[in-house]
């Protein structure tokens, strides 16, 4: 290999394997001291010497110097130069004059004899090829490739399966070593490893590994031994796809350094005690309720010590509040041993209990909770929130994320150092449900990040009865996490110490880098999908192994007994003590006959309900001066000193907006801004989220203005209305409906004194978020006493843009409304305010407003009510700019309120007995009917009444209108088909409203 080629090769390896600098790289491989003179001088001396020897041979018939024995360890050049030096010392004339000049300069320092003797010399004959220098370098590079191969692909052959079904076996290589690393892992260097003649050669370790500790060189045998233990034992680490060198290096330091996995006796005892509690709790439930569904952890019991380790480490690093999202498997154990919910309250759920609260309740393994307790390991108080979760397994993920983000916001925790989120998944659902991908992609979005989530996968290696080969295409269930560069730590769940070590790493990673990390606990499921299921029907071989397999607690006890960490007496005593605690909880549970669902709230609103007058809704009108101030601010361009270059179209929009304020009139965008701005003035945080919300899907809102010549320079007038206003957050979201709607619902759970709005791009686009609506929003209060004031806004109107861009599918929401169509609500001795009583007892509010003033009032009413209900609001498209969709400021000033219906104020109301048709309608169709009536000059014959609040149905006001126009024909008009829209909902309620004798009053 010539010098030019050699330089090119070094450059290539420098790029790939991060070696030391050129000179350091060269001298370390040749084991000679760095030369002060340039390589060119040395190269020239070597060339001149060859010519000198050739000339001498032609003259004398023999060479001037004896050729050196070429070796690998010392290197041919090192030995040759030393021979030249020795020959020069004996006879300066025996070498070329260039060597004479080189040695005379003192630039070369001979390697001491004691150092030469320590060289690991391997004859060149052991290497193939003809260029010794190339072979030396190739050998060291192969060693580096071996290290990199283990780091990159070692997890593929790690011993992760406790049952021994899926992982690879150890293979005995020709060199006598047993390796898990197959040729698929070692690839191009497999022959280098298998060839035993290199096993005891020393190789310099690259800067990209810490397996040597303080040692700079290791033999290949020792390198393989250490790499096998780290990457191919009970841990499988995926991290080499991470772009950041610093993050990869951070992981290596905590995995590769010799002794990093060693733990103290005290730590082993802590793991033992936590594993004992997790295991004995499951065993206790199995004894008492053998056939009862409980979705136990058996087979992945180590999850409890892992969660507690994460909480311990994070608490020590400053985290005070933990939001936990978890499906049903292991929830009871988590409630008992992580959240420390009183055992009697948990065990009482296995009995039939009468509810103290209104609502249907939910099964025990769906309930959430909130606790605040002292962490005895760190001696710090921690708050634990386990979010209530339905059977839509992973749908709780964005809800927990949103709640975490909200807590961080109200705490002023801008970096997430005090509040964090832990999400616990099942293996089949983690890879199979798209919400995992949707919510994971929120991890680095500025308006949605929670600054790192720790994901724990309870990997049972099976989903219900479906084998992983038929439930996913990726090799691992966790592969989805690679899209956000999250490191993935796989671990055999039968190795408690490795599991806890990786849990510690997860907590430290999240604290250091504020990014997601995944802990994959590879275990099994001792029972079927639930305890009443028979798994042998579908997985006979797996469950034959499971029934013969010892539980992890037994395995760990044997290990600790052998290490003399515990004794048999201590083991029995510990088990008896916890069993006694469980028995006491069991006996106390028998005394509980009722359940109070509010005790299981995951986010209690302390003092909120007590501070409100439950008998009325405060006035939602605002002083006109406030409206004008907000209006002028909202319609003004950025201050001149900002030199903000506006789009010409925006300038026209702002000018038109200012004219509206001058005229004391509001269109839809201005009415919206007046509602939000007045709430901000009152200290209410407003958050608007969705795919186009900054501008508005229909280019009507323009809350964020963009500088036309400077990238990322923006201006939002709503954020600077008043110096002491609340924070306004307007958040363009990812193109996800399910993930974002779940996130905003979770956000709304933390603080009732906020207005949280999710706006769908088009009405039907919430189709993919239907499970969030079904499982959390429509039924949350009924199941979990979980109130939420979330607003869902959906543009609605059949305007020829195709079905997906037209209908908000209001019928779906109305079908899920919890009110009786056959019962007319009446006042009682406890509540004479019938409209407020309706709002209190309904599960949500569904409205279709036609005026900016009504939008203004219904938004302000969301915050003013003495309780919280979700609001489903159909918003207009053409109505955003329709000339009839205007409101005067006098409709929003003090003394005004939301109108559940808007009567006809035209000629029809002046002579009601002359009216032939009384037409009730809702939404955009009103404007079409209004125009059609005017075209036919039927203003005196046809009365148009708008039903603005559809649910709860305004029986009293509808009945009032029917009695007022008692001689007219009653008609319901809608733009949707008969089996869509509001008709199916309103028809029986109209009938109920008309039931009493019309002669009364």
Characterization of this structure:
- There is one protein chain.
- Helices cover 39% and strands 12% of the residues.
- It is an alpha/beta fold and 1001 residues long.
- It has four domains: 132-233, no CATH class; 265-600, Rossmann fold (3-Layer(aba) Sandwich), CATH 3.40.50.970; 624-891, Rossmann fold (3-Layer(aba) Sandwich); 901-994, Rossmann fold.
- An eight-stranded mixed beta sheet has the order 5-12-13-11-10-6-9-8, sandwiched between helices. A seven-stranded mixed beta sheet has the order 19-16-20-21-23-22-28, with helices on both faces. The protein has a four-stranded mixed beta sheet with strand order 25-27-26-29, with helices on both faces.
- A hairpin with a 7-residue loop joins strand 17 (705-706) and strand 18 (714-715).
- Helix 23 (624-634) crosses helix 25.
- The longest helix is centred in the first third of the chain and has 24 residues, at 265-288.
- The radius of gyration is 38 Å and the shape is globular.
Low-confidence stretches: 1-41, 62-76, 113-130
Report helical residue fraction.
25-40%
What name does the CATH topology of the largest domain carry?
Rossmann fold
Q: So how many helices?
A: 34
Q: How would a textbook summarize the main sheet?
A: 8 strands, mixed
Query: Can you say what the CATH homologous superfamily of the largest domain is?
Result: Thiamin diphosphate (ThDP)-binding fold, Pyr/PP domains
Strand order of the largest sheet: 5-12-13-11-10-6-9-8
Distance between the termini: 110 Å
Under CATH at level 1, the class of the largest domain stands as: Alpha Beta
What is the CATH architecture term of the largest domain?
3-Layer(aba) Sandwich
β-strand amount: 5-15%
Please state the structural category.
Answer: alpha/beta
Organism: Glossina brevipalpis
Pfam family, one: 2-oxogl_dehyd_N
EC number: 1.2.4.2
Enzyme class: oxidoreductase
């Amino acid at each position: 290999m010539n010098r030019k080629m050699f330089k090119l090769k070094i450059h290539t390896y420098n790029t790939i394997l991060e070696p030391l600098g050129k000179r350091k790289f060269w001298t370390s491989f040749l084991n000679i001291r760095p030369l002060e003179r340039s390589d060119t001088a040395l190269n020239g001396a070597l060339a001149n010497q060859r010519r000198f020897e050739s000339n001498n041979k032609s003259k004398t018939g023999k060479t001037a110097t004896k050729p050196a024995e070429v070796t690998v360890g010392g290197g041919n050049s090192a030995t040759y130069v030393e021979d030249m030096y020795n020959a020069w010392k004996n006879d300066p004339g025996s070498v070329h004059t260039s060597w004479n000049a080189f040695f005379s300069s003192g630039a070369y320092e001979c390697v001491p004899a004691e150092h030469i003797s320590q060289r690991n010399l391997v004859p060149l004959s052991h290497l193939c090829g003809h260029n010794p220098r190339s072979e030396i370098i190739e050998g060291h590079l192969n060693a580096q490739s071996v290290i990199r191969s283990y780091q990159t692909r070692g997890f593929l052959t790690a011993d992760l399966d406790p049952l021994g079904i899926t992982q690879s076996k150890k293979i005995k290589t020709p060199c006598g070593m047993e390796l898990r690393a197959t040729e698929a892992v070692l690839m191009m260097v497999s022959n280098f490893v298998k060839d035993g003649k290199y096993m005891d050669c020393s190789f310099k370790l690259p800067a990209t590994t810490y397996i040597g500790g303080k040692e700079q060189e290791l033999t290949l045998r020792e390198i393989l031994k250490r790499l096998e233990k780290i990457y191919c034992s009970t841990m499988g680490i995926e991290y080499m796809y991470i772009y950041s060198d610093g993050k990869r290096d951070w992981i290596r330091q905590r995995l590769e350094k010799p002794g990093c996995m060693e733990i103290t006796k005290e730590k082993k005892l802590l793991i033992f005690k936590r594993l004992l509690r997790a295991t004995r709790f499951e065993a206790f439930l199995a004894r008492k309720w053998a056939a009862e569904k409980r979705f136990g952890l058996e087979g992945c019991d180590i999850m409890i010590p892992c969660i507690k380790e994460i909480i311990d480490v994070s608490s020590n690093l400053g985290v005070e509040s933990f939001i936990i999202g978890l499906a049903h498997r292991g929830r009871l154990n988590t409630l008992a041993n992580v959240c420390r919910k009183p055992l009697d309250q948990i065990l009482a759920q296995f009995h039939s209990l009468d509810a103290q609260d209104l609502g249907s309740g939910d099964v025990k393994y769906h309930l959430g909770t909130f606790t605040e307790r002292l962490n005895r390991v760190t001696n710090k108080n921690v708050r634990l929130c386990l979010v209530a979760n339905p059977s839509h397994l992973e749908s709780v993920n964005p809800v927990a994320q949103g709640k975490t983000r909200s807590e961080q916001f109200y705490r002023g925790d801008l970096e997430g150092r005090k509040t964090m989120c832990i999400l616990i998944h099942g293996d089949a659902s983690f890879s199979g449900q798209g919400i995992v991908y949707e919510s994971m992609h929120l991890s680095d979005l500025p308006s949605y990040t929670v600054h790192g989530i720790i994901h724990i996968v309870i990997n049972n290696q099976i989903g219900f009865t479906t084998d992983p080969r038929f439930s996913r295409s990726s090799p691992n269930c966790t592969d989805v996490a690679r899209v956000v560069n999250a490191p993935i730590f796989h671990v055999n769940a039968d190795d408690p110490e490795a599991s806890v070590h990786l849990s510690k790493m997860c907590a430290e990673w999240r604290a250091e880098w504020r990014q997601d990390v995944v802990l994959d606990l590879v275990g099994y499921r001792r029972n079927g999908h639930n305890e009443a299921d028979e798994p042998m029907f579908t997985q006979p071989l797996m469950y034959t192994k499971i029934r013969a397999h010892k539980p992890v607690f037994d395995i760990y006890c044997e290990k600790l007994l052998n290490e003399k960490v515990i004794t048999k007496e201590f083991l029995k005593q510990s088990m008896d003590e916890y069993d006694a605690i469980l028995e006491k909880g069991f006996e106390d549970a028998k005394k509980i006959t009722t359940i109070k669902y509010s005790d299981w709230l995951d986010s209690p609103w302390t003092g909120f309900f007590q501070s409100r007058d439950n008998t009325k809704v405060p006035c939602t009108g605002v002083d006109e001066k406030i409206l004008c101030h907000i209006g002028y601010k909202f319609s003004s361009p950025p201050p001149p000193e900002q030199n903000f270059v506006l789009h010409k179209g925006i300038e026209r929009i702002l000018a038109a907006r200012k004219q509206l304020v001058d005229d004391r009139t509001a269109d839809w965008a201005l009415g919206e801004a007046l509602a939000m701005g007045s709430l901000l003035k009152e200290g209410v945080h407003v958050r608007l989220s969705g795919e186009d919300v900054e501008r508005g899907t229909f280019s009507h809102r323009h809350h964020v203005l963009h500088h036309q010549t400077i990238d990322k320079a923006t201006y939002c007038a709503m954020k600077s209305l008043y110096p002491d206003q609340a924070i306004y957050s307007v958040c363009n979201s990812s193109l996800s409906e399910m993930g974002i709607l779940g996130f905003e619902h979770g956000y709304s759970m933390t603080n009732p004194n906020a207005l949280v709005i999710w706006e769908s791009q088009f009405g039907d686009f919430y189709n993919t978020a239907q499970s969030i609506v079904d499982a959390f929003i429509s039924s949350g209060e009924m199941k979990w006493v979980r109130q939420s004031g979330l607003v869902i806004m959906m543009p609605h109107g059949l305007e020829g843009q195709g079905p997906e861009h037209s209908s908000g599918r209001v019928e779906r929401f109305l079908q899920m409304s919890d009110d009786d169509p056959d019962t007319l609500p009446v006042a009682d001795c406890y509540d004479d305010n019938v409209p407020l009583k309706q709002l209190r007892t309904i599960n949500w509010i569904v409205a279709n407003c036609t005026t900016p003033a009504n939008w203004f009032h219904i938004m302000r009413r969301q915050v003013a009510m003495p309780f919280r209900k979700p609001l489903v609001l159909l918003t207009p498209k053409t109505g955003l700019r329709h000339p009839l969709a205007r409101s005067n400021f006098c409709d929003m000033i003090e003394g005004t309120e939301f109108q559940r219906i808007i009567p006809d104020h035209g000629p029809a109301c002046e002579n009601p007995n002359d009216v032939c048709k009384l037409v009730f309608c809702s939404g955009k169709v009103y404007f079409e009917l209004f125009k059609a009536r005017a075209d036919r000059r039927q203003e005196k014959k046809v009365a148009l009444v708008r039903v603005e609040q559809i649910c709860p149905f305004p029986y009293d006001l509808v009945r009032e209108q029917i009695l007022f126009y008692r001689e007219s024909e009653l008609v319901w008009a809608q733009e949707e088909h008969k089996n869509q829209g509001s008709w199916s909902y309103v028809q029986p309620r109209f009938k109920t409203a008309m039931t009493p004798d019309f002669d009364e009053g």
